[in-house]
Amino acid sequence: MSLFDKFDPLKSRLSLVEKLIGKDPLGVKFDDITDARHGRIGNREILLAGTNNYLGLTFDKDCMEAGKAAIDEYGTGTTGSRVANGSYSGHLDLEAALADHFGMPSCIVFSTGYMTNLAAISGLTNEDDIIFMDADAHACIIDGTRLTGASTIRFRHNSPADLDKRMSRVKEKKGSFFVIIEGMYSMFGDIAPIDEFLDVTHRHGGYLFIDEAHSYGVFGETGCGIAEEQGVLDQVDFISGTFSKSLASIGGFCVSKHAEFEIARKAMRPYLFTASPTPSNIAAARAAVDKIRTRDDLRTNIKDRAAQLHKGLSDLGFDLCADPSPVIAARRPNEAVCALEWNWLLENGLYVNIAVPPGTPQSTSLLRISLSAAHTEEDVNTIIAKFSELKDNQADLMQSLMKMAG
Ligand code: PMP
After folding, report:
1. Predicted confidence (pLDDT) per residue in 221-279, tens digit
2. Is 182 a pocket residue for ligand 1 (Cβ < 6 Å)?
3. b/e code 57-88 from CB counts within 10 Å (16+ = b)
4. Topology of domain 59-294, per CATH?
5. Whether residue 140 has its Cβ less than 6 Å from ligand 1
6. Best residue for ligand 1 mutational test, from 157, 238, 242, 360 (most atoms within 8 Å of Cβ)
7. Where are the domains of the chain?
């Protein structure tokens, strides 16, 4: 028995897909990224519609210049954690800027969004506490609950009533209730009723933690996310986010209305024992915060593009997972069909995400699009046209599937 035998089921699943489309769908290689909307594979230009680059700031001049200037001033890396090597002024400045944006007294910056959730969840809870987690929680939330001694109870996706029921069932607890939801969910693009979750959580004396990884920058009057959009930002206990989407960099943050959150910095292992974000990542994210606070036009554009795409794909008969949002996902009948269609789109110049279990809710197979404020009306017309052509080619695709199966 080899150490690697355990990968046999994954290997056979992948090889089936590879036989079907002639490539590894998880190994796409871009030869160039030209701007926030375009990449190149060989000599084929690709319209990017699956990069979570919601505000299109990866090629914003000010963000790029800030990143370059930080390299000149501070070098390429921090080469250690902030506890071991100290903080740079950029780390502190970014924490202050994010705390100010949310109007909260406390902010801690982490090396990735993934580590933010690992750190906050495992650092803020222990065996005395009980975590209540949405059934569709992202992998890094689930992994965070694996690193803590707290017991975890899942509640039905986006159901404050089910949360209420499960919280009511707990008759005795030593510590605190810690409820975890997301603002906008990454796969379906559906949105949490935060006001209702706040009501249930606080009625039971718990703390509400919201991951706004996909909503920071895009929703809310000043871009703080869904909690701001729903007018309840000042009541939320903790909000986490990532730099790898609207902030066009890499890293993550957690803000809190509780000033005592600051002490957790000294106790969170994924903060203490990993290198801090590089000067250029921090500087680019810092420049992006300013853009988020001032560029309403980006939010207006992405909302208009989302409405346009949602209507276009609905009119074509695609079964979409949620109302218009920057994430628009079409349910496909199974993984094989999804892979064939995803590959057809890529071969025809459009990059979207292939999303399959275990990364999707309800074991769905999805063609997932994430829009960007950089997309133009014409870009979205192109996406709709590609999906229309895909429909016209469906008979041929099914025939090739049958041939493979037969
Ligand atoms: N939270 C959610 C909801 C996510 O979808 C992701 C990653 N896509 C993360 C956190 C982790 O962010 P990062 O990629 O910055 O580690």
Report:
1. 999 999 999 999 999 999 999 999 999 999 999 999 999 999 999 999 999 999 999 99
2. yes
3. bbbbeebbebbeebeeebeeebeebbeeeeeb
4. Aspartate Aminotransferase; domain 2 (3.40.640)
5. yes
6. 242
7. 5-55+296-405, 59-294
